[in-house]
C-alpha cells in the first residue's frame, strides 16, 4: 500500500505526509482537469494483447479499468512534435512525398509522441490494459502516468517487473540517489496498489530511464501485428525499428517476410508476432510505440473470411446482391462475395439432410471485407452469423444432365445465377470444363429444392440438338480417324472458326472434353433450322480439310517453346502452313495445317469446298517442304536427354538466378535447356530437372554443380565481415530507390550489405565481400567528385531544353551520368504523365533526398565534375541555339490559300522551309478561322530566317488577296491558235501582261476541254494582270476575225530573195507586218506566195514584196549539166560571186545534177577522156 512505503527525497531529507499533501493540492489547484481533456471510453481503441515468451498461454488482456487511473494530462506549453509516421524519411515507398523529419521525442516527455500518448492513457486506454490481471504475468505492464500541471512523470512497476533485491548492486534508494547526483534529476518512489512501486521523475528524461534500467527485470514480449503493417514497422532499411530501439532501449525483432504467414499484404486477418526484449519499461514503451503505428496505419482494415463454404456465397449475397447491399448499407463496410456457379478444385459435398451436409470451405474462395475497423468487424460478424444459419438450413441435390446442355442452364448472362436464385430460391453449381462429370448440384432450402431441379431441367431441354461425329468423316486418315478429328477440332477452335459458327447461326457448339474418346460435336440452337444450317456448314468445313491437308509430326516437348516463338511465324510467311503445338507438357504430337497464301494475313480464309486433285497435290508438296524445314532447324531429337542435379533447398533461389543468367547469355537462335527448380509435384524438391541436348545439359549441370560447391565453400566463409566508411550524404544513392541499387549489389556479389550512420558493413565470403567493398568505395569516390551547377535559364526556354517527353534531358543524363533537374512546373508542362524527368531518370536509380528549393528560372546539373561540366556546356550551347532560333512572327492569310501554300504533298511549303531555314507552322484543316476567314501562320527561327519567310508569305498572301476570277467568251475555233504550239502563245501573252513565266502561268488561264462545247476561258490571278491578259486575248481574236489571205506571183528564181539567208528575210517580213508568209518549197515549180493576216497588213506586205522584187536585176546563163560541178567547185565559185560582187546565183527551180564519180571528175579536169 502507499501508506506502507515511506516517501524518499533523494536530494534531501524525508518529507512529511502533510508537506506532500500540500504539494499535491498546489498541483491540483494549478491545473484543474476538465471533461473536454478526458477521452471518452467509447473513443478508445484498445491495442491487441501482448504475450510473454515465457508464458504464451496467459496472453489474454484484462478488460477491467484500473481504479487508480490518472486523469488525462493537459498538453505542455512546449509540445514535442508527434511521431511522424507519414515521414518520407521513415516510409519512403509508402508516403506521398518527402516531408521534414520530426525530431524524435522521448517516451518520457509530456505527450511527446504517439506512443507516449498511448502510454499516458490519453489515446488508447492504457490504464485499462496495464491493470494487473490475476495470475497473468503477461498483463503486468508498467504504468506510465503524466501528472497534470507539472513536468513530472510517474511510472508504476509490478514486483515481478523489477529485479529481485538480491540482484541489485545497491539498495534502491541509494541507486536513485546516485543517479540524481549525476544527472540533476529528482526521482521519488512510493508504494502503489497491489504491492507495486510508483516512481515519480522530474528532470532529465534520460536520467530517469537509466535509473529504471538498473532496477527493472529483463523480459520478452510478443506483440501480434497485421502482416500488412510489417513494412511500416520496419521502415526504409529498418529506419523505423532502429529509431524505436534507440529511443526505448529495447530490442525489437520483426520476422522476415518469408517466415510470416502467407497471404495477401492487404489482409489484416493475417498476423505476425514482433518480439520485444529488454527491461520492463523499455519493452512496454517499444510495444506501445509499435501499437501506435499499427493503430494509425490501420484505421481501415481488410479481412478475408476463409471459413465460409463457397456454396453459401449466392445466399449471402442474395438475389441481385440484395442481402449484400443491405449489409454494406448497415455496416458502412465494403464486402466482396465471389461469384460461385462452377466448382474448380473441390466438388460440392454429397447429398444429406439439412444440417448434416458437410459443406467445406475452399482456401482460394473467400469473402473479402474492407473498411473502417469497427465496420469491417461488424460486417464479418453478420456474415458469420448468416453462414451459421445457412449451415443448418441448406441441403443439396445432384442431377445428371448431358454435358452439352450444361451451358444453357446459366448461359453467358452475368445475372443468370441471380435470376435462378430469385425464381427458385436455390443456387446451382456446375462442374468445370476440365472435368467430365455430368452431375450438377442444386443447393437451397429443403422446400425449394424441387423448384430448382425443375427449373434446371427446363433450361437444359429448351434447345434443339444435332450431333456430328468427325472421326467417321475420314476413316482412312493416315494419323488415324480420331487423331485427325481431334487435330481438326483443335485447329478450328484455335482459328476462332467455332465461335464464328456460333455467331452466324445463333447456336452453341459443345466439343468433346476427352482427348481419347469419340470426337463428336453437338450443335444446340433454339431454332431447329439454324441447327440444320450450322451442321451443314460444319460438314463443309470437314470435307474441305481432308487428311492430306493436315500432317502430324512427333517432336520432343523440349522444342515446343521454340516452335511457338520462332517456327510458327516462319511457317506461315514462307510456306502458308499453320502449326498446332499441344498445350500438354508431355505430348509430342504437333500438326501442320496447310492454309495457303492467306496464312500470314490478319484474316485467314477458311475453305468450305472439297479440294481438287491439283490442290491435294499442292497440300502434299507444301507440307512435305514445311516438315523438312522444321526437322532441319531442330536438329537430332534423339540427342535430347533429361537429368537432375541435387541442389539443397537453401541454394535453390540462387541457382534459379544463376540459370537465368546463363540462359540470357545464349544467342537468340540457340534453344536453351529447360530447367525446373523447386517444383516437387512429381519428384524430389531438392533436385533441379534439366532437359535438352546432351551437350548443353551436361555443360549446364556441371556449371550448377560447380556453383553449388562454390556456395558451400562460401558458406564456410560467410562469417567474414568488413566495415568501412561511406559518406552519409550519399547513402541514398548507394541504397537506391526502394533498395534497388543495394539489392543489385547483394545479388551480384552474394553478400549481405548494411548501411547505417556513415558506415557500410559487408558480410560474406572474403573475396566477394572485398570485391563489393571495392565497388562501393569507388562509388563513394565518384560521388565525392560530384559537382552542382545552377544555371539561370528563362522559363520560356525550358520546354525546348527538356525535349519531347524528356528526350533531351534523358540523352544528357545518359551521356554524362549526371542528373539534370528542371523546375516541376516546366516538367509538368512537357511530360504527359505525372512523373517528372528528374523523378524517372535522374535519381541514379535510387530514392533521392528532399528536393531542394528551386527557382522557376533555374536548372540544376549535378554529377561527376567532368560530366557535369560537359553537360552544363552543352545545355548552355543548346540554350544559345534556342535563343537564336526563338524569333517568331505571324502572317495572316486566307484559309482558302492554305492548300496552295502547302502545295501538292507539301512540296511548296517544304521548299519554302528549305529556302529560308525557318520553322513554319501551318494551321490544320480543323483549325477554325477568324470572322474574316483568315488564319495565322507561325514562323520561328533566327531573325534573318523569320524575316525572309515572313516576306515571302506576306507577298504570296498579298497576291492571293488581289486575285480575281474572270471569264471571257472566245469562239472555240480560236482556242488552238490562242494556245499556240505547246502553249507558247498563251505563255507569251501572260508574260507580256506581267504574269509569271514559270509553270504556274498555265494555272492563270484555263481553257475548256476540246471535247467540251463550252467556249468560256477562265482567268484567275492578279486583277491588273488578268485585265491585260483579257485585252491581249481580245486583240488576238480581233486580229483573227479581220484576217484575209491573198497570193502574190513571184518567179521561183526570186523566192530566195524573200527567204533570205537562213530564213532571215522571211521572218523579218512576218514580224514587221504581223502576217504569215507561205513560200512554196524549192523545186515544186510553183510561183504563188500566200500572205495571210489582217487586211491592212496583208496589203502593205504585198506592196512591200512587189517593190522589193522590182528593184532586183537578174540574168540567166545556160550551163551544160555535165559541167555544173566543175564550175561550181562545190559552191566556192558561187560564194566568191556573192562576197566579191554581191551577185547571187540560183538554179531557177531546176534540180541540181548528181555529182559525177571521182575518176570521171579527175579525167574531165585533166582534159582527157576514155575512148569507148
TrEMBL record:
**Protein keywords:** Coiled coil, Repeat, RNA-binding
> Which terms in the Gene Ontology molecular function aspect does this entry carry?
RNA binding
Q: Which residue intervals define the domain K Homology in the entry?
A: 217-295, 299-388, 393-461, 718-781, 785-880, 885-958, 962-1038, 1042-1110
Q: Where is the composition biased (Polar residues)?
A: 1-10, 832-844
**Pfam families of this UniProt entry?**
KH_1 (PF00013), KH_11 (PF22952)
Source organism superkingdom = Eukaryota
Q: Does the keyword Zinc-finger apply?
A: no
Could you tell me which InterPro entries the record lists for this protein? Answer: KH_dom, KH_dom_type_1, KH_dom_type_1_sf, SCP160-like_KH
Coiled-coil residues:
369-396
Where is composition skewed (Low complexity) in this entry?
A: 51-67, 92-128
Q: Where is this region: Disordered?
A: 1-142, 250-270, 831-856, 1146-1172
Composition bias, Basic and acidic residues: 20-35
Tell me which SMART domains the record gives.
KH
The record, for PANTHER family, names: DODECA-SATELLITE-BINDING PROTEIN 1, ISOFORM A (PTHR10627:SF31), SCP160 (PTHR10627)
- Identify this protein by name: K Homology domain-containing protein
Q: Which organism is it from?
A: Aspergillus niger
Amino acid at each position: 500500500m502507499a501508506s506502507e512505503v515511506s516517501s524518499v527525497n533523494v536530494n534531501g531529507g524525508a518529507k512529511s505526509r502533510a508537506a506532500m499533501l500540500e504539494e499535491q493540492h498546489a498541483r491540483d489547484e494549478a491545473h484543474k482537469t476538465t471533461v473536454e481533456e478526458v477521452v471518452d471510453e467509447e473513443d478508445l481503441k484498445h491495442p491487441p494483447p501482448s504475450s510473454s515468451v515465457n508464458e504464451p498461454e496467459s496472453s489474454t488482456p484484462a478488460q477491467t479499468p484500473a481504479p487508480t487511473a490518472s486523469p488525462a494530462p493537459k498538453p505542455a506549453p512546449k509540445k514535442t512534435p508527434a511521431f511522424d509516421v507519414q515521414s518520407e524519411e521513415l516510409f519512403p515507398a509508402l508516403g506521398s512525398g518527402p516531408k521534414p523529419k520530426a525530431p524524435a521525442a522521448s517516451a518520457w516527455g509530456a505527450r511527446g509522441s504517439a506512443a507516449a500518448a498511448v502510454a499516458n492513457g490519453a489515446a488508447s486506454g492504457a490504464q485499462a490494459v496495464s491493470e494487473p490481471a490475476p495470475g497473468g504475468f503477461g498483463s503486468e505492464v508498467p504504468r506510465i502516468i503524466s501528472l497534470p500541471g507539472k513536468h513530472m512523470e510517474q511510472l508504476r512497476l509490478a514486483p515481478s517487473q523489477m529485479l529481485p533485491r538480491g540482484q541489485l548492486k545497491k539498495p534502491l534508494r541509494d541507486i536513485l540517489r546516485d543517479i540524481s547526483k549525476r544527472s540533476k534529476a529528482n526521482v521519488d518512489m512510493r508504494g502503489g496498489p497491489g504491492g507495486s512501486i510508483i516512481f515519480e521523475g522530474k528532470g532529465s528524461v534520460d536520467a530517469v530511464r537509466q535509473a529504471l534500467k538498473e532496477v527493472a527485470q529483463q523480459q520478452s514480449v510478443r506483440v501480434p501485428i497485421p502482416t500488412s503493417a510489417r513494412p511500416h514497422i520496419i521502415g526504409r532499411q529498418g529506419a523505423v525499428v532502429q529509431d524505436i530501439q534507440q529511443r526505448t532501449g529495447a530490442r525489437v525483432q520483426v520476422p522476415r517476410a518469408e517466415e510470416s504467414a502467407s497471404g495477401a499484404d492487404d489482409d489484416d486477418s493475417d498476423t505476425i508476432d514482433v518480439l520485444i526484449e529488454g527491461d520492463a519499461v523499455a519493452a512496454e514503451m517499444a510495444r506501445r510505440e509499435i501499437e501506435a503505428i499499427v493503430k494509425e496505419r490501420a484505421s481501415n482494415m481488410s479481412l478475408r473470411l476463409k471459413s465460409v463454404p463457397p456454396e453459401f456465397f449466392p445466399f449471402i449475397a442474395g438475389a441481385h446482391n440484395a442481402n449484400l447491399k443491405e449489409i454494406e448499407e448497415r455496416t458502412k463496410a465494403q464486402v466482396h462475395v465471389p461469384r460461385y456457379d462452377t466448382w474448380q478444385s473441390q466438388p460440392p459435398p454429397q447429398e444429406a439432410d439439412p444440417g448434416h451436409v458437410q459443406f467445406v470451405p475452399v482456401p482460394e474462395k473467400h469473402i473479402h471485407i474492407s473498411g473502417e475497423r469497427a465496420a469491417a468487424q461488424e460486417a464479418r460478424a453478420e456474415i458469420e452469423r448468416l453462414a451459421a444459419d445457412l449451415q443448418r438450413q441448406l441441403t443439396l441435390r445432384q442431377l445428371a444432365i448431358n454435358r452439352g446442355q450444361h451451358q444453357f442452364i446459366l448461359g453467358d448472362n452475368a445475372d443468370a445465377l441471380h435470376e435462378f436464385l430469385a425464381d427458385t430460391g436455390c443456387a446451382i453449381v456446375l462442374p468445370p470444363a476440365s472435368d467430365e462429370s455430368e452431375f450438377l448440384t442444386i443447393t437451397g432450402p429443403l422446400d425449394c429444392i424441387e423448384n430448382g431441379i425443375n427449373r434446371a431441367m427446363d433450361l437444359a431441354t429448351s434447345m434443339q440438338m444435332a450431333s456430328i461425329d468427325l472421326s467417321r468423316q475420314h476413316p482412312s486418315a493416315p494419323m488415324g480417324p480420331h487423331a485427325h478429328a481431334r487435330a481438326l477440332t483443335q485447329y478450328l477452335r484455335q482459328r476462332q472458326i467455332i465461335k464464328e459458327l456460333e455467331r452466324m447461326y445463333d447456336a452453341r457448339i459443345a466439343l468433346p472434353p476427352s482427348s481419347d474418346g469419340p470426337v463428336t460435336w453437338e450443335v444446340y440452337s433454339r431454332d431447329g433450322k439454324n441447327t440444320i444450317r450450322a451442321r451443314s456448314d460444319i460438314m463443309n468445313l470437314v470435307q474441305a480439310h481432308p487428311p492430306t491437308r493436315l500432317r502430324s509430326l512427333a517432336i520432343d516437348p523440349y522444342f515446343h517453346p521454340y516452335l511457338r516463338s520462332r517456327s510458327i511465324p516462319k511457317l506461315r510467311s514462307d510456306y502458308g502452313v499453320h502449326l498446332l503445338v499441344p498445350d500438354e507438357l508431355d505430348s509430342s504430337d504437333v500438326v501442320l495445317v496447310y492454309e495457303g497464301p492467306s496464312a500470314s494475313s490478319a484474316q485467314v480464309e477458311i475453305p468450305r469446298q472439297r479440294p481438287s486433285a491439283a490442290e491435294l497435290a499442292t497440300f502434299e508438296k507444301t507440307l512435305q517442304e514445311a516438315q523438312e524445314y522444321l526437322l532441319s532447324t531442330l536438329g537430332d531429337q534423339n540427342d535430347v536427354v533429361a537429368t537432375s542435379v541435387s541442389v539443397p533447398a537453401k541454394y535453390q533461389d540462387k541457382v534459379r538466378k544463376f540459370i537465368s543468367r546463363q540462359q540470357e547469355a545464349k544467342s537468340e537462335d540457340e534453344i536453351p535447356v529447360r530447367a525446373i527448380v523447386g517444383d516437387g509435384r512429381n519428384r524430389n524438391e531438392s533436385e533441379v530437372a534439366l532437359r535438352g541436348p546432351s551437350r548443353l545439359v551436361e555443360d549446364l549441370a556441371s556449371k550448377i554443380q560447380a556453383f553449388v560447391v562454390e556456395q558451400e565453400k562460401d558458406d564456410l566463409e560467410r562469417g567474414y565481415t568488413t566495415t568501412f566508411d561511406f559518406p552519409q550524404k550519399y547513402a541514398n544513392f548507394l541504397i537506391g530507390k526502394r533498395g534497388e541499387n543495394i539489392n543489385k549489389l547483394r545479388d551480384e556479389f552474394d553478400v549481405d550489405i548494411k548501411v547505417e550512420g556513415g558506415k557500410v558493413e559487408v558480410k560474406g565470403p572474403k573475396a566477394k565481400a572485398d570485391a563489393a567493398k571495392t565497388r562501393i568505395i569507388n562509388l563513394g569516390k565518384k560521388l565525392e567528385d560530384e559537382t552542382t551547377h545552377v544555371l539561370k535559364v528563362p522559363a520560356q526556354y525550358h520546354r525546348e531544353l527538356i525535349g519531347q517527353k524528356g528526350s533531351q534531358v534523358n540523352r544528357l543524363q545518359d551521356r554524362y551520368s549526371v542528373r539534370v533537374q528542371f523546375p516541376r512546373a516546366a516538367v509538368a508542362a512537357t511530360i504527359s504523365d505525372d512523373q517528372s524527368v528528374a523523378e524517372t531518370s535522374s535519381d541514379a536509380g535510387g530514392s533521392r533526398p528532399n528536393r531542394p528549393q528551386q527557382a522557376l528560372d533555374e536548372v540544376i546539373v549535378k554529377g561527376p565534375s567532368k560530366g557535369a561540366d560537359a553537360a552544363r556546356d552543352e545545355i548552355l550551347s543548346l540554350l544559345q541555339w534556342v535563343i537564336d532560333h526563338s524569333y517568331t512572327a505571324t502572317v495572316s492569310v486566307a484559309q482558302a490559300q492554305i492548300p496552295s501554300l502547302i502545295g501538292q504533298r507539301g512540296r511548296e511549303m517544304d521548299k519554302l522551309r528549305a529556302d529560308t531555314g525557318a520553322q513554319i507552322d501551318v494551321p490544320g484543316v480543323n483549325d477554325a478561322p477568324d470572322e474574316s476567314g483568315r488564319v495565322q501562320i507561325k514562323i520561328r527561327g533566327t531573325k534573318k530566317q523569320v524575316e525572309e519567310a515572313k516576306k515571302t508569305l506576306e507577298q504570296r498572301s498579298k497576291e492571293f488577296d488581289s486575285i480575281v476570277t474572270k471569264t471571257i467568251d472566245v469562239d472555240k475555233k480560236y482556242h488552238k491558235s490562242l494556245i499556240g504550239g505547246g502553249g507558247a502563245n498563251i505563255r507569251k501573252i501572260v508574260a507580256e501582261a506581267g504574269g509569271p513565266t514559270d509553270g504556274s502561268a498555265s494555272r492563270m488561264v484555263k481553257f475548256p476541254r476540246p471535247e467540251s462545247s463550252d467556249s468560256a476561258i477562265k482567268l484567275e490571278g492578279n486583277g491588273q494582270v488578268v485585265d491585260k491578259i483579257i485585252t491581249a486575248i481580245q486583240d488576238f481574236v480581233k486580229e483573227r476575225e479581220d484576217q484575209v489571205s491573198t497570193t502574190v506571183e513571184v518567179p521561183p528564181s526570186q523566192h530566195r530573195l524573200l527567204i533570205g539567208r537562213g530564213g532571215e528575210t522571211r521572218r523579218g517580213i512576218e514580224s514587221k507586218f504581223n502576217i504569215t508568209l507561205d513560200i512554196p518549197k524549192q523545186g515544186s515549180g510553183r510561183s504563188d506566195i500566200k500572205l495571210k493576216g489582217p487586211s491592212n497588213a496583208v496589203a502593205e506586205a504585198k506592196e512591200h514584196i512587189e517593190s522589193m522584187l522590182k528593184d532586183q536585176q537578174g540574168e540567166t546563163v545556160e550551163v551544160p549539166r555535165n559541167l555544173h560541178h566543175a564550175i561550181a567547185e562545190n559552191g566556192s565559185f558561187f560564194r566568191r560571186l556573192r562576197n566579191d560582187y554581191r551577185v547571187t546565183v540560183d538554179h531557177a527551180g531546176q534540180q541540181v545534177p548528181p555529182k559525177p564519180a571521182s575518176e570521171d571528175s579527175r579525167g574531165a579536169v585533166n582534159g582527157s577522156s576514155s575512148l569507148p
